[in-house]
């Protein structure tokens, strides 16, 4: 298949989300593109100037601030990320769902192997927007939430997971519906609100969990803070570090470890595509756990490479659960028994070795086909425009 025809089959916003994370595409419309900050590692900018648009049936991109004058197609975008010409062609064929054509470079040119991206560079680029709430944002987050009621949907959900009443998890319920200026509902009153604590013990994000199947399950209520991992109480004082997929799974692990008398720090990633905080990795044994599925395997591979590059003393991988998540097992077994079983898994953890040796950089999660909206377009940073009407939502402070 000719390259131009192949390019008409690949959606550039999907490609950017796939390569740079769902956070990078906030502001783009899947059908017509838009303007965002340059999503490529090492090309950060303070004002959006990276334009994504359709031209003659083919997706194009261009950076307009004059810093590098780069522009091109989805193929050129992959080249700018460090793909060789051969690798870029193969990736486009994979994304378009066509068989590899054995395409040859014109005039006998050969693609040169691209250097593997630095795991720390990619991690730091993803973590760049992550930061603690300032005093004003912290006050706003607390005003948006009210005290968690046990018999509410949010309260029952945490009770089922064994996390209800645990002081290590700061949670409440949304006081009012969260809507866009054009009236679209993003979260209903009563949605679970999690204050995501960072490595310094402060709040770094407010993440909502909807219980209405017609809405996105997770989203962030206050924008501009990325998708930081949840950190356990007194983070930095543990003898080792456990990094696990999912904030609530991280909280479950921390509660179980505490019940077992084990002093380990825990990070709960913001899903399988999450990136851990780099603080607390160097010089310590790092344990990894993610769901036993393709996305989880890619998560372990990615985070393992980051941990090694960040100077972990060793990286070990826990055996998968037979069924359920950590937070489900905590609710089923209770903190003491779950902590004992988690201790057994830590003792039996195998030394992690990368399955990506010799391949191009960090593995990426392959988005599953969907008949409707995909999660890529349902979560991420909240638009600043959505918060313009917050002043009329009441000023009483919510308790915990």
Q: What is the total domain count?
A: 3
Largest sheet: 6 strands, mixed
How many β strands by DSSP? Answer: 17
**SS-derived structural category:** alpha+beta
Find the CATH topology of the largest domain: Dna Topoisomerase Vi A Subunit, Chain: A, domain 2
Evaluate the radius of gyration.
22 Å
Name of the CATH architecture of the largest domain: 3-Layer(aba) Sandwich
Q: Which H/E pattern describes the elements?
A: HHEEEEHHHHEHEEEEEEEEHEEHEHHE
* Helical amount: 25-40%
End-to-end separation in angstroms reads: 59 Å
Average pLDDT level: 81
Which shape, going by the Cα principal axes?
globular
Largest beta sheet: strand ordering: 12-14-13-15-16-17
Q: What is the CATH class name of the largest domain?
A: Alpha Beta
Number of helices, where a helix is a run of at least 4 consecutive DSSP H or I residues: 11
Strand content: 15-25%
Unreliable spans: 102-114, 357-400
Search tags:
alpha+beta; 11 helices; five-stranded antiparallel beta sheet; 3 domains; disordered C terminus; six-stranded mixed beta sheet; Dna Topoisomerase Vi A Subunit, Chain: A, domain 2; 28% helix; Toprim domain-containing protein; 400 residues
């Amino acid at each position: 298949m000719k390259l131009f025809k192949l390019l008409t089959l690949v959606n550039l916003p999907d490609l950017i989300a796939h390569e740079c994370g769902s956070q990078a595409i906030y502001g783009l419309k899947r059908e017509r593109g838009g303007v965002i900050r340059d999503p490529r590692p090492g090309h950060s900018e303070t004002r959006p100037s990276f334009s994504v648009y359709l031209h003659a049936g083919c997706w194009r991109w261009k950076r307009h601030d004059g810093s590098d004058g780069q522009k091109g197609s989805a193929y050129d975008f992959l080249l700018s990320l460090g793909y060789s010409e051969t690798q870029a062609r193969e990736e486009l064929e994979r994304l378009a769902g066509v068989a590899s054509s054995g395409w040859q470079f014109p005039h006998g040119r050969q693609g040169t192997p691209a250097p593997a991206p630095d795991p720390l560079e990619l991690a730091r680029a993803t973590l760049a927007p992550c930061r603690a709430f300032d005093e004003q944002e912290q006050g706003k987050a607390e005003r948006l939430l009210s005290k968690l009621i046990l018999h509410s949907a949010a309260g029952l959900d945490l009770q089922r997971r064994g996390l209800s009443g645990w002081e290590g998890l700061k949670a409440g319920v949304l006081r009012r519906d969260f809507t866009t200026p054009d009236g679209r509902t993003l979260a209903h009153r009563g949605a679970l609100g999690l204050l995501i604590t960072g490595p310094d013990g402060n709040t770094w994000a407010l993440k909502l969990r909807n219980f209405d199947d017609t809405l996105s399950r997770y989203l962030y209520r206050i924008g501009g803070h990325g998708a930081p991992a949840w950190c356990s109480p007194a983070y930095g004082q543990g003898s080792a570090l456990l990094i696990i997929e999912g904030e609530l799974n991280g909280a479950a692990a921390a509660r179980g470890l505490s019940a077992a008398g084990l002093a380990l720090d825990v990070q709960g990633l913001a899903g399988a595509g999450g990136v851990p905080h780099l603080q607390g990795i160097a010089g310590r044994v790092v344990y990894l756990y993610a769901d036993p599925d393709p996305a989880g395997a890619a998560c372990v591979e990615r985070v393992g490479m980051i941990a090694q590059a960040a100077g972990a003393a060793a990286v070990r991988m826990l055996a998968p659960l037979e069924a359920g998540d950590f937070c489900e097992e905590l609710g089923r077994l209770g903190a003491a028994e779950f902590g004992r079983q988690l201790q057994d898994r830590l003792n039996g953890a195998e030394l992690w070795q990368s399955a990506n040796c010799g391949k191009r950089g960090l593995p990426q999660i392959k988005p599953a086909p969907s008949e409707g909206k995909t999660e890529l377009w349902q979560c991420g940073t909240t638009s600043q425009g959505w918060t313009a009407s917050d002043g009329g939502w009441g000023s009483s402070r919510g308790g915990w």
